[in-house]
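Input/output pair, single chain:
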Amino acid sequence: MKTFVSLVAVCATAYLIFDFPKLQQTANEVLRDGTLQGVEVCVANSESALVTVETTRNACSARFQKNLYSIEFATGRAGPSVQAGKVLLEGSLENKKTSHVTTWIALSFYTFDADGKKSEFVTDTFLWIEPSSATELSVTLPDLEPEQVRDMKFCDHEDESPKSCMGWGVMEIRGIEI
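Output:
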């Protein structure tokens, strides 16, 4: 009983001395690390009229997400498009996991010139793909010029020395457990 009273006193003192919402946030991050429930509590505690719910969700997801170790957890079809002088990778991406929401992805877009020299362009983006679902994808490929992909075909995956072609792949995936 004495220990319980001491614990209550310490908690009450901490409540009065420290920033309680910050204490709640830290407890949430420790107790619900990597989970959807942690993101939900974070979003509820971070409501603001100044930013969209999606922005808040992305910020909270970044705090709770974990690396998903197989890049095969996300598959899709996409290709480059040019809009306003920028090259975008657009298409759809599917979350193959049944127990996780995909929240972030790093992508590699690559081209091979006529001599077979590879150039790689890396980008990442927040997204929200529920388990066994798909979403539309549109990400800017920085440093890639439109003329680098104009009239270029996709590489044949079986070709061991590709030339004058392009491709893309998933480099890293992060998500939260349901």
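The chain is about 30% helix and 40% strand. Helices lie at 2-17, 20-31, 36-45, 53-64.
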